[in-house]
Every structure is written in C-alpha cells, then in structure tokens.
Amino acid sequence: MPIKRFMTLERHIIENERKYPGATGELSNLLSDLALAAKIVSLEVNKAGLVDILGFTGDKNIHGEEVKKLDMFAHDTLIKAMDHGGHLCVMASEEEEGLIHIPPQHKIGKYVMLFDPLDGSSNIDVNVSIGTIFSIYRRKTKGEGQGKLEDCLQKGSEQIVAGYVVYGSSTILVYTTGNGVYGFTLDPSVGEFILSHDNIKIPTKGKIYSVNEGNYLYWEDGLKKYIKYLQQHDKETCRPYTGRYIGSLVADFHRNLIYGGIFMYPRDNRNPNGKLRLMYECNPLSYIVEQAGGKASDGHTRILDIQPKELHQRVPLFIGSQHDVRIAEEFVQGQRDLETK
Ligand code: AHM
Ligand code: MG
C-alpha cells in the first residue's frame, strides 16, 4: 500500500511560523512543550480505569507517593512542561485561584498562557471524553520580570494561539494561530500528533443543539422559546434539531465544530453569568470557532470583545454555526418569537 504524505504537529507549527517574517521560533517551541504535556496527560487519562484494578486505591500509590486526582495531575503536568521553556512570563489555570509565576531560576519570556487542565471533570470516572483547553497571549506589561494580572486579563481578541485536546476514542489536538483551524490525531504507536483535520470549517448551519435541559425551569423566556423553536417541525429549516449533550464542553464543542450546530451554557435564575469561565473555556473556543467560520456570543456581545475583570469570571456562552448562534441571539434578545401556524 502506498504511504501517504503526513504532517506532524511539530512540522506544521514550524512551517506556519515561517510564514511570518521576523518570527523567532519561540512560539513553535512553546507549542511543542504544550504538545508534550498533552501526550503525558493523554497517557494518564487512558490508564485511569486501571487505577483500582492495579491496586492504586486510597491516597498513596505503590511507591508510597500521593495519588493525584486526574485534574490536579493535568494541572501540574502543564505547569511542569511549560514553566522552564523561557517563553512564558505568567500562567493561570482554572484549578488555581491566583497567578502561576515562573520559578525564579528560569528565564522569563514574552508570552502568557491560560488553561483549563482537564475540562469535563464530572466525566473523568466514567470513561467519557474530557479535554484540555489553552490560550496564549503576548505579555502587555513592559519589562522582563514576572507577568502580572494585567497580562492575563486581555480580551479574547488579543489571543495569538488557542487550542484544545480531547481525550476521547482517540486523542486529538486542535489549534489556531489566527490562520485557520487544524486538528492532529495522536498516533500512540509513534507518539506523534499527525494532521488529520486540515483547515477545519464549521458548517454555516447545523442540526444539533447542545444544552443542559435540566435547567429549563430556571431559564429566561427567550431561551425557552428558542429551544421550543429548535424542537418544532419545519422542513425548510431542517427542524426539529437533534439534541446532543455530553457534559464535557471540549467534547460537545469538538463534535459541533465538525458537524455544525450550537452549544449553549446560558445564564439562568440561579447563575446570572452561566457556568463557564471566560478566560479558560469561552475565549479559546470562541477564537477557534471564529477561525473556523463560526460565531460565539454571550447572547448579546461577541465573546472575544468582552473586557475581562477577573481571572475566574463566568459568562453565558452560545457558540457554533453562524446561522444557529444568530437565531439564538434573536430569541434571547426578544427580537424573535415562536411562529404560530
Ligand atoms: P469543569 O471545568 O469543572 O469540568 O466544568 C465545566 C463543564 C463543561 O465541560 C461542561 O460543558 C459543563 O461543565 C457541564 O455542566 P453541567 O453539568 O451543569 O451541564
Ligand atoms: Mg472546564
């Protein structure tokens, strides 16, 4: 059988960076460090179900070391892989309240990284896809010392790289540097991410909606109407839509990115800002969806235009195919009502 040409993540990153005159290769190195962290987390996620069988119960493993929860393991792995490359000046993680500084013995770089180390944590113990989400910005503050809060609190539109990894039936890393969206599937036999999804484009309109309908009673009227609209029969607009909700944002998002559709985590009576975090979840996925030709909004405002006020800020999220997010906005803003036939 003839061997097809293949593109590794590393080569893709380098070739992509070459397109920018004056590029130093630093971003390429940074992304390579990140890919290594993703491989380590992937390995550990794949072993998760064996923990009990191999006797790793309780708080210590066979070496007498603390057994870390997988989300803390992912958090620590990302920090360890990224804090000594000389590229970052500060980090922030969904799992840590404050800033993560670069240890004083290491060189301080010009980039800032924010991440959700293991998204979908409620699915960890039940073999359902989970993932890592990351976002990279240029530092804003002058000087060469540690990065500051101000460097982290940048609008999503300032991102220079965003990506995610889904640990699912296979492990896939999807990223953008503002020049299209590319997906690489991990080949575990050679330990390389290989280009499997070239220049991903989300369909302009989908047929899938993803939302936790258990919260229905707490929703605003506009949203209730929108969901009813999606469930109505109308041949012309391909309704009813299909409901799909995994409960792991990365996995729900990835599916909708490929097939088209809309993912929502709206505000409700109990959570006025929804549940998802602007800096670790909404911004990176919004950058990716826009690069793929889709749309992301909090129901009123483009996610990437929101000026963050705090690291762990939450925002409502409507993300996916252009057409679907636009109609959702119209309902949420009260500009559209159910058609009575
Ligand atoms: P996590 O980062 O603690 O895992 O929480 C975020 C997750 C998302 O992955 C997912 O979309 C959402 O929470 C599910 O929430 P719910 O169970 O309320 O539907
Ligand atoms: Mg999360």
**Which CATH C-level class of the largest domain is it?**
Alpha Beta
- Which second-level CATH architecture of the largest domain applies? 2-Layer Sandwich
Shape: globular
Major sheet: size, sense and barrel closure?
8 strands, mixed
Bound ligands, named by name, code or SMILES: 2,5-anhydro-1,6-di-O-phosphono-D-mannitol, magnesium ion
Q: Low-confidence segments, ≥5 residues, pLDDT <50?
A: 53-57
| Average of pLDDT | 91
* Relative strand content: 15-25%
CATH superfamily of the largest domain: Fructose-1,6-Bisphosphatase, subunit A, domain 1
* Radius of gyration of CA atoms, rounded to a whole number: 21 Å
Helices, by number, come to 8
CATH topology of the largest domain: Fructose-1,6-Bisphosphatase, Chain A, domain 1
| Counted beta strands | 13
Domain count: 2
Order of helices and strands: HHHEEEEHEEEEEHEHEHEEH
The end-to-end distance, rounded to whole angstroms, is 58 Å
Structural class: alpha+beta
Q: State the share of residues found in helices, binned by percent.
A: 25-40%
Spatial strand sequence of the major β-sheet: 2-1-3-4-5-6-7-8
How would you describe this structure to a colleague?
With 341 residues, the chain is an alpha+beta fold. It contains eight helices and 13 strands. The protein has helices at residues 9-18, 26-47, 70-82, 149-152, 221-231, 249-259, 278-291, 322-332, and strands at 88-93, 100-101, 111-119, 130-138, 161-167, 171-176, 181-187, 192-197, 208-210, 242-243, 262-265, 295-297, 317-320. Helix 2 packs antiparallel against helix 3. The longest helix has 22 residues, at 26-47. The protein is globular, with a radius of gyration of 21 Å. Magnesium ion binds next to strand 3.
